[in-house]
Write a structure and sequence with these properties.
479 residues, mainly alpha, 3% strand, 21 helices
Length: 479
């Protein structure tokens, strides 16, 4: 469709008889030409928005199916839902907890309306945020690739992936931090430091693991904008610098990317500072001191967590999907059915994304490929994936789980789609045959969808026969 419109626009611009007509300078005629162009573009844009909306709506539906079951806590819901109940009833969490309060407050908002024991409300926030991630993936891919076809394809992959589906159906914190990190990523692509700063602060207020993405995004922002920031230093040799130029190009974004996230993070701890029972008779300085001491305890917990778990998974195992997290299992019921919820990704998407990452690393090192796939895009994607993996490999010796990988899923998918975009644009690396691209993307989408349909029962906890379950969980390491 996009190629057809471009051809029609070219026809309008290149018709030979128009060049020979004396009234070409007539303003009304020129307006008519521009109106036709805008109409063609508008119709296509509306269709693309419609497709994006349908993909997002489909994602919401498959995230809500059977979401109320099981009626018991799934995995770490036993911590986060209980903490959410305390937050919305007492204003603050009780006892010791190891993550900031914003994520649990988000979990608790539907429970405030629908009831503390309503299992649908327990998981509704996760489903909503998981659905938002689909739309954000489309937006990020559209900005990076400037193609609605590939952007909607990226959103479709995000829609049907197992890790994304499972983490949108259980009340853990990871889907919330992923949504905020992806939002910050989009503001980074649009070079908007205030939005970047706000969502970095929100992400950090859910889980500290967002810190590594904040570091990558902030460094990337200043590297990309270094020419704008320092051009006046170079041009004027520090002699005729204007104060407003320095403030606009350097000091203002520096404040937005440093002070703003810090203020949002501190603000997220207001429930602790105001409603924590043991702080009621303390002044503001004593409360802040207790908050700092509480942070020390949280850090010591994460730094010294030496326990083991049957489903623990090292970060290098996440993309190969060798040890997914089994979050729930119910043995054969009276009808001989079993049900399981396991954070097992769509193998076609994850393994294809892993191959794409190797291709991008090779492209990053190869000058010839770097000229065809913009270096900035490659660098941002690779370092975003690294921010979600390397700290767990290098800095931490604690237990980790495969579902932590949800935060890198959007970047893996966009990397996958970026490589497909490049391959389908060969031999020149620029022009794409729309029909050819649609054909290939349709084939890939059908394969990925078939795999998702096959695995969906163990993503949604649907009752299936034991034989069916064994056919799905075909690797011993997944049991």
């Amino acid at each position: 469709m996009e190629q057809l419109i471009q051809e029609r626009l070219a026809d309008l611009n290149n018709l030979k008889f128009i060049k020979n007509l004396k009234f070409i300078k007539n303003l009304e005629f020129t307006k008519k030409i521009n109106e036709i162009k805008l109409l063609l573009i508008s119709k296509t844009t509306n269709k693309n928005f419609l497709f994006a909306g349908l993909i997002t709506l489909f994602g919401l539906v498959i995230r809500l199916i059977n979401i109320s079951n099981p009626t018991s806590y799934i995995f770490d819901e036993t911590y986060y839902i209980k903490d959410a109940k305390h937050l919305i009833t007492n204003g603050a969490e009780e006892g010791f907890f190891v993550h900031p309060e914003l994520g649990k407050l988000i979990i608790g908002l539907p429970m405030r309306i629908g009831g503390l024991d309503n299992t649908f409300c327990w998981r509704l926030s996760a489903a909503i945020f998981g659905t938002i991630c689909i739309a954000l993936t489309i937006a990020a891919a559209k900005k990076m690739l400037n193609s609605w076809i590939f952007a909607n394809f990226a959103g479709f992959l995000m829609c049907i992936d197992g890790v994304g589906i499972v983490l949108s159906r259980v009340s853990l914190l990871d889907i919330f931090v992923t949504t905020f990190v992806l939002s910050a990523f989009i503001f980074l692509l649009y070079n908007k430091p205030i939005g970047l700063g706000i969502f970095c602060g929100l992400a950090l207020s859910v889980k500290w693991s967002a810190l590594w993405f904040i570091i990558v995004f902030v460094i990337y922002y200043f590297l990309v904008n270094r020419q704008t920031i320092f051009q006046h230093f170079n041009a004027n040799k520090l002699i005729n610098l204007k104060k407003n130029i320095i403030q606009k190009n350097f000091l203002k974004p520096l404040g937005q990317l440093s002070l703003l996230p810090i203020l949002i993070y501190i603000f997220s701890w207001l429930p602790y500072l105001i409603y924590r029972p043991e702080l009621q008779n303390e002044n503001i300085f004593a409360r802040l001191y207790k908050l700092i001491d509480f942070h020390k305890q949280i850090y010591n917990f994460h730094a010294n967590l030496a326990s083991t778990h049957g489903y623990q998974s090292a970060a290098w195992q996440w993309i190969p999907m060798t040890r997914p997290t089994a979050m729930y299992y119910n043995g054969a019921d009276s009808g001989g059915k079993v049900s399981e919820i396991i954070s097992l990704g769509n193998l076609f998407i994850w393994w294809g994304g892993g191959i794409a990452l190797f291709f991008l690393i090779f492209s990053w090192l190869n000058r010839n490929l770097r000229t065809r796939i913009e270096l900035k895009r490659i660098s941002l994607l690779l370092f975003s994936v690294a921010a979600g993996i390397l700290p767990w490999l290098i800095l931490y010796k604690r237990i980790t789980f495969q579902f932590y990988s949800i935060i890198i899923l959007p970047f893996i998918i966009i990397s996958f789609v970026l490589v497909l975009h490049y391959l389908l644009s060969l031999p020149d690396g620029e022009n794409i045959n729309t029909r050819k691209a649609m054909a290939w993307l349709s084939i890939i989408a059908i394969i990925a969808l078939a795999i998702s349909i096959y695995f969906y029962p163990v993503w949604a906890g649907l009752p299936i026969t034991y034989e069916h379950w064994k056919n799905i969980i075909f690797f011993r390491e997944w049991i």
